[in-house]
Design brief:
mainly alpha, 2 domains
Length: 273
């Protein structure tokens, strides 16, 4: 394996890329609600995502001793520890209400990962619920926390944005579920397992259309955001439509995960025009 490929795989396996996606969504929220460009909330989301995702991915394997702590995993563990320190420092700078709510989402993440009750599986393996927990956690971290931390008044725009963000993340996760269809336990009852791949794609397209038209329910409609959302919807719809079980892992772990980053970059580009 070449050094560039090893570095790229480490970048993906250590959750840096997904953390950048989370960071981009927080910055999108700051942009949408015209929140002061403070870095402690985006940094908390970035570092916290690295810690949370690596915990979710590797905790169960480590506890069951199904993985050996080679140099690759040791490096991920060291990075996660550094990220934990970064998340703790950023957490300290958050408002008290934001800290309380973030702890609630941490508890939900732990519920998702750890079996708290004897003879039961963790929430990650509860039938049909995985996609809703993940989507809710992402809405909480990338939208609810930044808005709460800013102290701005919660208008109807906030609730419409929460619904939009949930739909966006729901569709994005269905791409992962389609790609993982061959490997997922049938008892998980993921959306494509229950509905079939074709129906899942059609439902996803419908949800993206709803996502787009919810923008018109805002108190203040911005033409630039409507243009940006068209680009987002088309991009995500194409990724969803061409997803299949035979796609490379990079289709989701890099390209699909890049969509929130791409969305934010498009916003920056449009703002400069």
């Amino acid at each position: 394996m070449t050094i560039p490929k090893r570095l790229f795989d480490f970048y993906l396996d250590s959750s840096i890329h997904v953390a950048l996606s989370c960071y981009a969504l927080v910055r999108m929220t700051q942009h949408m609600f015209q929140i002061e460009d403070s870095q402690h909330m985006p940094n908390f989301a970035f570092f916290g995502t690295i810690v949370g995702y690596n915990f979710v991915k590797y905790d169960a394997l480590a506890r069951t001793k199904k993985i050996n702590m080679g140099s690759h995993l040791i490096a991920i563990a060291v990075l996660s520890f550094i990220a934990f320190i970064g998340a703790a420092i950023s957490f300290y700078k958050l408002e008290r209400i934001t800290q309380v709510v973030s702890i609630a989402f941490l508890a939900l993440t732990l519920l998702y990962t750890l079996p708290f009750f004897p003879n039961t599986r963790n929430a990650r393996n509860w039938t049909g619920i995985k996609i809703y927990i993940v989507s809710l956690c992402w809405v909480g971290v990338t939208l609810m926390l930044p808005v709460l931390d800013s102290g701005i008044n919660l208008t109807s725009d906030f609730y419409w944005k929460c619904l939009q963000r949930f739909l966006l993340l729901f569709v994005l996760i269905t791409i992962f579920e389609i790609i993982d269809l061959k490997n997922d336990d049938p008892n998980l009852q993921t959306v494509p397992q229950k509905m079939g791949v074709k129906r899942t794609k059609i439902i996803g397209i419908i949800l993206l259309i709803i996502f787009y038209f919810l923008e018109f329910l805002k108190l203040k409609i911005e033409i630039s955001q409507l243009i940006v959302n068209v680009v987002l919807v088309i991009t995500l719809a194409l990724f969803l439509w061409f997803a299949n079980e035979n796609r490379s892992k990079y289709y989701t772990s890099f390209w699909a995960e890049s969509i929130p980053i791409f969305w934010f970059l498009v916003v920056l580009f449009v703002d400069r025009i």
